[in-house]
Amino acid sequence: MSDSDPLVIFTPSGKRGRFPVGTPVLTAARQLGVDLDSVCGGRGICSKCQVSPSFGEFPKHGVTVTGDSLSPFNAVEKRYDEKRGLKPGRRLGCQAQIMGDVVIDVPPESQVHKQVVRKAATARAITLDPATHLYLVEVEEPDMHEPSGDFERLSAALEAQWGIAGLTAPLPLLARLQPALRKGDWRVTLAVHTPRAGAAPELLEIWPGFYEGGIYGLAIDLGSTTIAAHLCNLATGEVLASSGIMNPQIRFGEDLMSRVSYAMMNPGGAAEMTAAVRAALNDLAQGIAEEAGVAPDAIVETTFVCNPVMHHLLLGIDPVELGQAPFALATSGALNLPAAALGLSAINPAAHAYILPCIAGHVGADAAAVALSEEPHKSDDLVLIVDVGTNAELLLGNRARVLACSSPTGPAFEGAQISAGQRAAPGAIERVEIDPATKAPRFRVIGCELWSDEDGFDAATAATGITGICGSGIIEAVAEMRMAGLLDASGLIGSAEQTGSARCFPEGRTHSYLLHDASAEGGPRIAVTQGDIRAIQLAKSALYAGARLLMDEMGVDTVDRVVLAGAFGAHISPKHAMVLGMIPDAPLDKVTSAGNAAGTGARIALCNRAARAEIEQVVRRITKVETAVEPRFQEHFVAANAIPHATAPFPELAKTTPLPQVNFNTGGGGEGGRRRRRRG
Amino acid sequence: MSDSDPLVIFTPSGKRGRFPVGTPVLTAARQLGVDLDSVCGGRGICSKCQVSPSFGEFPKHGVTVTGDSLSPFNAVEKRYDEKRGLKPGRRLGCQAQIMGDVVIDVPPESQVHKQVVRKAATARAITLDPATHLYLVEVEEPDMHEPSGDFERLSAALEAQWGIAGLTAPLPLLARLQPALRKGDWRVTLAVHTPRAGAAPELLEIWPGFYEGGIYGLAIDLGSTTIAAHLCNLATGEVLASSGIMNPQIRFGEDLMSRVSYAMMNPGGAAEMTAAVRAALNDLAQGIAEEAGVAPDAIVETTFVCNPVMHHLLLGIDPVELGQAPFALATSGALNLPAAALGLSAINPAAHAYILPCIAGHVGADAAAVALSEEPHKSDDLVLIVDVGTNAELLLGNRARVLACSSPTGPAFEGAQISAGQRAAPGAIERVEIDPATKAPRFRVIGCELWSDEDGFDAATAATGITGICGSGIIEAVAEMRMAGLLDASGLIGSAEQTGSARCFPEGRTHSYLLHDASAEGGPRIAVTQGDIRAIQLAKSALYAGARLLMDEMGVDTVDRVVLAGAFGAHISPKHAMVLGMIPDAPLDKVTSAGNAAGTGARIALCNRAARAEIEQVVRRITKVETAVEPRFQEHFVAANAIPHATAPFPELAKTTPLPQVNFNTGGGGEGGRRRRRRG
To answer: Which residues contact A298 (CB under 8 A, 6 or more apart)?
Structure first.
C-alpha cells in the first residue's frame, strides 16, 4: 500500500486502509479484519460477501466516491444477478475491484458474526459464531510422483485457502472423502467443527462441489416433563422451527426423585430411561427437521440443557448418587461429545453435542443456561431469577457474586396435584379475577382472548370447552381468593357464612370455592379445594424459602428486580405471585418474564462458541447453596406458609377498595414468622 | 536444600542433589528428574520404585555411605517383603528416607523408560514409553457445600498427585466412575492414555483401589495372507505371546489387486472384506489373550502395520483408488483412533489403535514399520532393505536420503504358482543342494534338522511326509540348478542329454527336474518345472528391477549392505538369492536378515510414543519412486530375467569346482542387458 493507492473505508466498522487499484473488496476486507462473510473463498459462487458501496461526498472521511470507484459489474455478478437476483446497489465483494477511494457498507446479513435478534425486548442479541462453518476448498489432484493422501491434500488446501490448520476427520468421513472429491472435480464444500478457538478443527461433513444447502443446529431443553427444541440455521441464527414433546420417562416417575428411585429399585432401570429419552430425542429431531423442511443430515450441532438427573440419564449415567446426600454428580463440567455417543441417530452421524455445565447435584445445566441467557453475573443491580418447574432453580446475584439453589416445589405449579388441575392447553383456565364485593369470578381460558363475562365467550370456547385450571390459573385464583376475603392468611377457605358467598361450599371437613360449573350441560365442575390451597402453599413456600435462603447468604433483605423464567414463568402474573408470596416483594415494573430462558441459553450456546467458554467460566464462580440440608430452609419454608397480602403489596397494584384482613381460624396459621418488607 | 543437607547421587543417571534429612528417596528422584517408576505415587503399594542403596567409600563422588544413610526398614517395607519378597539390598524408594550422603542405584526394572531388549542382535533396544500408563490416585470425597463432579475431583487429584492436567473421559467411563470410586473408598487406579507428549490425557480404564494386574498392547502386522500379532506387557515391554492367523480376505482374492477388483465389481464388496478382517482381528485378539492368560479387557493399546489396500479395508475405506493410477490413498498420515472404530470389540472397549503412516499408494504402513525398525535414515552406509512378500517393499538409503518403492513380485516366493509349491509348514522342502558332479539333490524339510541324505531322515520325516516345496526351497532349488549346470542363463532347463542327468525329464515341450519321488509309496512327486522357473524369474526380476530403480534414482551402482526383512526374508539364503539375482550383489557378510521387521516396527510403536512421532517425521522425508509407470522399471525388469551367476558371485561362496557356463538354447535368453557388478 502506498499513499497514492485508493482509500477504502468499511462501514459500520470504520476500518480503513489503502489498497492497490484492482484489489477485490473481499481481499481488502480480509486484510483489514473486516467481518465480511464468504463460504466459497472469493470464487463468485456463494454470494455471502455482498456489499453496498456508497457514492457521493463523505466529508467526515475526507473522500469523494464516484461511480468509477469500483470496477464495473462483471460477468460473474451479472450471471448471479440473473439467476438469483442481487438487491439494487449490491456488489459481490469478491468480484468488485477497488479503482478509487470508496466507502463500502457491509450489510448485517453479510457479516460472519452477525447479530441474531432475540424476541424478548430486554434480552441482548446473540453474536453468531457457531462451532461449525462451511468452507469451499479446491484440492490438488493426486500425483503419483508426489504421493500424499487425498485427506492430506484436502487438509493442506483448507490451510492454504482458509488459514485453518490441523484438520482431523473421523473414519466414516475418511471413507466418503475420495468419491466426494472426484464427484466434485476436486472442489468440495466442508463443514468444519472447531469447538473453541485454538482447538483442532474436525471434518464434520463433505459435499461434492459447492453445497447450496444450509447447516442447522438443535438447541434442546430436556425437562423432566417436556422436551423442547429449537431448530436454528447456523449461518443466520434464524429459528426455523420450535417443537416440544413429552418426556417419555414420565412413565417411570412423574418427578425426578421417583425416577431416581426407579433406577435404584430396578436393575437396568437407568438404562431403560436412557433408551426412552434418546428415542424421544430422535423422534423430536426427525419431526422438527420435517416441519422445517430441513434434511436431518444437515443438522450438525446440538446443545443440551437439563437438570442433573435428566443430564445423567441422557448420558447413560446411573443417577443414583443424585438421590442421596451429598448429591454427587458423576461429572459437572461441560461436555463436548459426538452426538452419536448420545444415541442421536436421526441427525448427521458426525454431528456434535454440547452439554452445558451443571452447577451442582441439584442445580443443573438448565440453571447454567438461565444464567447464560439472563446474565446475573453482568447485572449492576441485584437480580433474583426464578425458573419455576417441578424443581425450581433460583439464581441471585450481580457482578460481584452469584448464588444458586434449587427448591423442590413439586408439580402443583404445573397444574398437577390440583383437583381440577391440568397442563396449560386450550380449555384450561389461565387468568382469574374475583370481584371483592360479589365474590364472583371471571376468567379467561387458553385459546380465547375474551373474559368469561364478555359477550361471545361461550361461543368462542365451545370447541375446547372449559376443561380445568392450569398453573398460572390456580396461582391467580388463590391470590384473588385471598384478596376477595375468601381465604384467610393461614390459607383456610371460609364457609358461605364466613365469606358471604354461596360459592363457598363444604366438602368434607373443609370448604371449596366454585369457579365454574358446567355440570348442568354435562361439563366439569371446577372448584378450588382446601387441598388445592395447601398444595399451592407447599409449592410457593418452597420457592420462597429458596429465595430467602439465597438472600440470607447474600446478606440482603430485598432484591432490586425479579426475573421469572421458564415457559410457566412467562404466564405468571407478577402481582398474583407477590400476593401469594411466591417471590419476594419487588416493584412491579422490576418483575419481568424471561420466557424459556433455559431454552434461550441452549440457543445461545448453539450459535456462539464463546458463550460456551463464558458459561463454563461463570458456573465455576457461582456459589451453590444447598437447600436440602440447610436448617434455615426449613425455617423459611414453615414461615412462608401463610398468604400474607390481603391486598396487593404495592399501591399501583391495589384494588380500588382495600379489603379487611380476615382470619377464619384464629387457632393456627396467620402470618407466622414471615417478615414483611414493603417498598414504594 | 542447603549445603549441609545430605548429598544424594543416583546411578546410573549420575543425577545428584542435596535434600533435607527425612526426604523420601522417591521424592528426591522426582525432584531431580531421575527415571524412577511408581504407579501408586509413593503410597507403598505398588513396589515399582525399588532402589538399591550402595554403601562404602565413593571417592569419585566424594562421599562415604554408611548403613545409617537411609532410614531403617519400616513397617510398610517389612510387610511388602513378607508378602511379596524384596530382593536383598532393595528398598522401597517411597519409604526409605534420606538420612545422610547416599548413592542410590535405580535398577533397570524400576526405570519408567526401561530398555526392552530385542532379539535380533543387530537391532537397537526399544525405550519403553507407551501411550498408556497406570496411576493410583486418591480422590477427595464429595461435599455438597462445595459441589463438584466426581470426575472433576478425579481430574484434580490426577493433576495434584501426578502433574497430569486436563483429563478427558469418554462417556462409558464416566458412567462407571461413581461405583468405582465408592468401591475403592475414593482410591482408584487409572489407565491414562496420552497419545503424545502435550496431548490431552484421556481416561481409558478405571479400577477400584490399587489394580495389581498389568496392561497390555497388541502389535499387529496385517498382511494380505497372514495376520500376526504380538501381545506385549506395556509396563515391561515383554512379549507374552505371538500368534498368527490367515487373513480371511483370501477368499475374496489371493493378492491385493484381486481384492481391489472384488471391491470394484461387487457392490458392498469392500464392506464385506472389512467385516471379514475385523472379525479375524477379534478372533486373533481373543486367542492371543487366552494363550497368554491375560484378560482381554486389559488390552488397552493396539498398533497396526499393513499395506495400503489392507489399510483401507481395515479402516472401512473402499480401496478402489488404489487399483488405478495415480494410486491415491484416502489418507496417508498416521491415525490415532478408538480401537472400537475399527470394530475391535474383543479388547478393552476404550482401547486405542495407532496405525502407522503410509508412504504412498503402493508403499504402506508396513514399509514405514520396516523403516522404523531398520532405521535406514540413521544408517551411515547405504542400505537396501527388501521386505519380500506378495508385494515386495524396498527401501534404499542412508542418513542423507531414503527412497522407497514397491514391486509386484507375485506370490511365487511364497510357494504359490509353483507346481509343487506350498506354504512354509512342516513337510515342506526349505533347503536344497545339488551336487554339481552327480546332479543329485539333497534337501531339508521344515520340522527336521537332518538333510535328506543323512541317517534317520526318513524316520524323522515319517510323521509329516515330504509334502511340497516352500518359498525358500524353490529359491535354493533354482539357484542350485543353475550352479549345477541344469539351467542355462536364460532359465531353460536342459534335457537329460544336455545335462547328463536322468532327473531332467520331458514334460510337454520343456523339461522338469525331479527333486523327490515318493510316488512308489503313494507320496508326491516333487519336481521343478520350466513353469516354476519362469514364475521365479518373473518374481525375482520384479524384485531386482525395483532395487535397480531405487539405485538409479540414488545414482549408485552398488549398495553397502542388504537387509532381508519379512518372515520369509529370515529364511532366504543370501547366497542363493544373489545367485538367482533377486538382490544386487553385496558382500555376503553384509547381507543380513531382520526377521519380521514390519512386526517389530509395530511393536516399537506400541512401546514407545516418541517412535510414533519419529516415523511420522521420517515418512514425510522418504522419497517415493513409483514403479508402475516408470519406463526404466520395465527395462530393468526385462534385463533382470536372466540368471547370470553360474557360480556364486563371491569367492567365499564359490563351490570347490567352478562350473562351465551352459546355454541350452542359443536362440534366446542369455544375460541380456544386465550389468554385472562384482566386488571382493
So the answer is: A213, A214, A215, A216, A289, A348
- What are the residues whose beta carbons fall under 8 Å from the beta carbon of A342, sequence distance 6 or more? A278, A281, A314, A315, A353, B171
Is any Cβ of chain B less than 8 angstroms from the Cβ of A315? yes
Do residue A326 and residue B360 have CB atoms under 8 angstroms apart? no
Q: In this structure, what DSSP letter does residue B416 have?
A: T
Which of B172, B178, B628 is closest, CB to CB, to A321? B178
Angle, vertex CA A226, rays to CA A224 and CA A230, nearest 5: 125
Q: What angle, 0 to 180 degrees and rounded to 10, lies between the N-to-C axes of helices B171-183 and A308-315? A: 110
- Which burial class, exposed, middle or buried, applies to B510 when counting CB atoms under 10 A from its CB (0-12, 13-18, 19+)? middle
> Is A524:A468 a contact under the CB 8 Å cutoff?
yes
**How close is the nearest chain B Cα to the Cα of A287, in Å?**
27
Chain A nearest C-alpha distance from B342 (Å): 9
Rounded Cα distance, A55 and A63, in Å: 10
Residue closest to A223 by CA, chosen among A271, A277, A273:
A277
Residue A55 CA: distances (Å) to CA of A9, A66, A71, A100, B555: 12, 6, 14, 11, 67
Query: Cβ contact (<8 Å) for A326 and B626?
Result: no
**Whether the Cβ atoms of residue A300 and residue A193 lie closer than 8 Å to each other:** yes
Q: Smallest CA–CA separation between A360 and chain B, in Å? A: 5
Q: How confident is the model at residue B456 (pLDDT cuts 50, 70, 90)?
A: very high
Domains plus CATH for chain B? 7-110 (3.10.20.30), 116-208 (3.10.20.880), 217-355 (3.30.420.480), 369-411+535-653 (3.30.420), 418-484+492-530 (no CATH)
pLDDT at A527 over 70: yes
Contact status, residue B334 vs residue B247, Cβ threshold 8 Å: no
A114 touches A234 (CB < 8 A): no
Q: Can you tell me the distance from the alpha carbon of A177 to that of A674, in angstroms, rounded to the nearest whole number?
A: 68
DSSP for A210-268?
Answer: ---S--EEEEEEE-SSEEEEEEEETTT--EEEEEEEE-GGGGG-SSHHHHHHHHHHSTT
Q: Do A331 and B142 touch (CB under 8 A)?
A: no
B462 class by beta-carbon count within 10 Å (0-12 exposed, 13-18 middle, 19+ buried): exposed
- Per-residue pLDDT averaged across A161-168, rounded? 96
Neighbours of A449 (CB within 10 A): 9
Nearest CB to B361; choose among A144, A152, A318: A144
**CA distances in angstroms from B454 to B95, B450, B451, B460, B517, listed in the order given:** 64, 6, 5, 10, 17
Amino acid letter, residue A199 = A
> Per the structure block, which three cell numbers stand in for A665?
381460624
Give which of A170, A171, A175, A211 is closest to A190, Cα–Cα: A211
Cβ A172–B316 below 8 Å, yes or no? Answer: yes
Q: Find chain A residues with C-beta within 8 A of B147's C-beta.
A: 326-329, 332, 359-361, 363, 624, 626
DSSP A296-355: GGGEEEEEEEE-HHHHHHHHT--GGGGGSTT---S--S-EEEEGGGGT--SS-TT-EEEE
- Is A170 in the B-facing interface, judged by CB distances under 8 Å? yes
Residue B480 has pLDDT above 80, yes or no: yes
For β-strands B561-565 and B591-595, DSSP reports them as parallel
Cβ-Cβ contacts under 8 Å for B57 (sequence gap 6 or more): B64
Distance of CA B265 to the CA centre of its chain: 34
ipTM: 0.83
- Model pTM? 0.84
Least confident of A204-208, A462-466, B152-156: A462-466
Q: Identify whether the C-beta of residue A379 lies closer than 8 Å to the C-beta of residue A399.
A: yes
Of B142, B152, B315, the CB nearest to A326: B142
For residues B663 and B644, give the distance between their C-alpha atoms in angstroms, rounded to a whole number: 11
How much is the pLDDT for A680? 34
